[in-house]
Design a protein that fits this description.
The complex is a heterodimer of chains A (about 475) and B (about 325).
Chain A (H helix, E strand, L loop, with lengths): L18 E2 L2 E2 L4 H8 L3 H18 L2 E3 L8 E3 L2 E9 H25 L4 H4 L5 H5 L21 E10 L2 E8 L6 H14 L1 H7 L7 H11 L11 E4 L8 H11 L2 E3 L4 E4 L2 E6 L2 E5 L1 E4 L22 H6 L4 E3 L10 H4 L2 H9 L6 E2 L3 E2 L3 H10 L3 E5 L9 E2 L5 H13 L4 E5 L5 E6 L2 E10 L1 E4 L3 E3 L4 E5 L13 E9 L2
Parallel strand pairs in A: 5-25, 7-15, 8-9, 8-13, 13-14
Antiparallel strand pairs in A: 1-2, 3-4, 6-7, 6-22, 10-11, 11-12, 16-19, 17-18, 17-19, 20-21, 21-24, 22-23, 24-25
Chain B lengths: L2 H30 L13 H8 L2 H7 L5 H10 L7 H14 L6 H17 L9 H22 L4 H29 L9 H13 L3 H8 L5 H9 L8 H19 L4 H14 L3 H6 L2 H22 L6
Helix pairs in contact in B: 1-2, 1-4, 1-5, 1-7, 1-8, 1-9, 2-8, 5-6, 6-7, 8-9, 8-12, 8-15, 12-13, 13-15
Classes of the chains: A alpha+beta (about 475), B mainly alpha (about 325).
Chain lengths: ~475, ~325
Amino acid sequence: MTFLGIGIMATPEFFNEMTNDGEIRAPYTAVMRWYEGTDPAVLQQKYREAEALFRQTGITFAVYGDQPDTERLIPFDIMPRVFTQGEWERLERGIKQRARALNAFLWDVYHRGEIVRSGRIPARLVYQNQAYEPAVVGMSPAQRIYSHIIGIDLVRTGADEFYVLEDNCRTPSGVSYMLENREIMMRLFPQLFRSSRILPIDGYCDRLRRTLQSVAPPKCDQEPTVVVLTPGAFNSAYFEHSFLADQMGVELVEGRDLFVDGDFVYMRTTRGPRKVDVIYRRIDDEFIDPLCFKADSMLGVPGLMNVYRSGGVQLCSAPGAGVADDKAVYTYVPEMVRFYLGEEPILNNVPTWRCSEPDDLNYVLDKLPELVVKEVHGSGGYGMLVGPASTKQEIEDYRKRILADPADFIAQPTLALSTTPTYVDQGLVPRHVDLRPYCLVGKSIELCPGGLTRVAMTEGSLVVNSSQGGGVKDTWVLSS
Amino acid sequence: MLSRTAESLFWTSRNMERADTIARKLEMGYRMSMMPTQSGGMASEWQSILAATGELEKFQQHYDEENQDNVEHFLVYSSENPSSIKQCIRAARNNARQVRTAITSDVWSALNQAYLEFQAFEVQGGTKPDLPSLCDWTKRQAATVRGAFSNTQLHQDGADFFNLGYFVERAGNTARMLDIKYHVLLPTIETVGGAVDNYQWTTLLRAFSSHRAFHWAYGGDYSPDKIAHFLILNQACPRSLKYCLGQTNQHLDRLSQGYGAYSPAQLHAMRMRDDLATASVGDIIQNGLHEFLIQFTIENNQLAEKIADSFLFGER
């Protein structure tokens, strides 16, 4: 479970996605009519059923260890989050635009580096980035695509105000929850679906398979064989790996199931070796090939990178894709959109100050108590300063850290995160949410009408990650 | 199907079968230890039981005396012994967990339940079940897993690998258990006949849950050649070598048909079956029961290796 990665603090006024000046906003009218017309006892009952269903289908997330009760449930909220088709279309255009720009950027930085030569992004940020992968310089993956599944984290601050919080270009997780949330809602509240014309998302896994097949390597001359590569049953996201493999109807393999022979990668099957063309890998770059990266990795496949570089197999996402979702590079994504696509960005970044630049640094140091400051390479919400929630001492300590190495930090304003109605024991209460839609990039770019909405179940909290009590809810796009 | 999946299924069933036979061996040792020997003392069966599990040396490294407490601890609860009931159940469950999508939820919960219940036996301050109850419990778990598999699992190649695990393990165990009886208690076949020996033979049958079945099949008194026939050549006895080989062949044949090719494992299993088809108990005893059982065990181990080779288990 990833941390939302935000440093956004509560401010007194929040945009409530359901109510506006006391009126129920259009997307929520049907849900509210249903909610008010339903006996509270029935809701309680449904709530318990939802939990039972989650247990039954095994949608738990693993906690490392070997104790009997190491699997926990993610709290599920039975109130859906609703978008109109109009709202969604704008998001969709913005997300697809961003996906195109990110892939164009990745191809560029592993080739001529035009964006760097033109001075739009500092060379140091790209070429000295930990995620920049010298091993793939000059080679082109199929269709020139590096990031095939992009999870773009969004937050909302007003009726028409959305901000991109971060891009996840490597292996964004959570899509199995998006799909299972919908399955469970459809089982619990069929009448709601009959009356509401909600755009379906159940084609996601078919689309994912088609996307992966569409980037088969040049040497593949028959129907491409796709596999999902997992680190194994002890990984916390193993449920998702097996879920996706199962739903796509492809094999779920571990590194030891694969081997390289000559120009190709094969999996060991009971019928003998079978060539593999596309690998949807859920293993980080540094572990996928001990001959190329970490020599002591037991998870990868020796020789895999050679086959990849010679066009015998496609890795999704492509090694090196991580350089596009770094926090410092993030600030340049709007620039990428203008540079590669010649368009204005549809979705905004959260305004960000780069401490590497003297003017920005001065501003940041001046306004520390109001800002959120993050480490450029940090993730998981660790090592960040949330100004308004910190003591004087904490702020002063952090100031010293920034001054020691300004280029290592960025700062953002505290945003007023939107809330949606959430069902708890006391009834409906507003709780903060974010949204992660999953964009698929292959021969075509596709976006499922929906995504994973994570909700901070505790009052006032902005932390939506599951290890800290964050929950999930179904996300609807109403057909107009 | 992925070789790893096939391998995990094979080892899930092998480990459950092994836990089952360890329970049966313990039962046999427990009964025999209550029997006086011809020389007047109490029989010490524990050493032969340990020998039959193939872990005698390891036992001797960790314990000084072969008494019931030590053997029970070693064969049931020990983490050092890879063939203890605890480790077998754990291995079976972990193998299944790795291929969770290849087994039904019924099979999974049967395995997981066994694993969790065993953990409860080990809780500090809890009471461990006595040996006979523990043996019953183990056999029941094995039967539950087996039943869940037959009842809910698709009968295709995965089921063949699962069943191969059972019958390869079971044939090996039957041969070894027969050999304990031969090896330790019967230096020469001709001295059989005393009441004590009969009691020990019946204990052997009991350990296979077959002492009543034996009467149905043969009637009359026990005799070593009847018992040998029952456990080696009787087609109807689900623990006989012949039955196990018949099943092994059936599953290998089915795999070959499905995959459209003969496998080296299948050819090996066919030869073993054909050898038994023409064998008679008289010949086997004449030529040395012990030698026969040793030879069988070797060939059975080869069969397991050939299954691994034929279907690419493990490293290339």
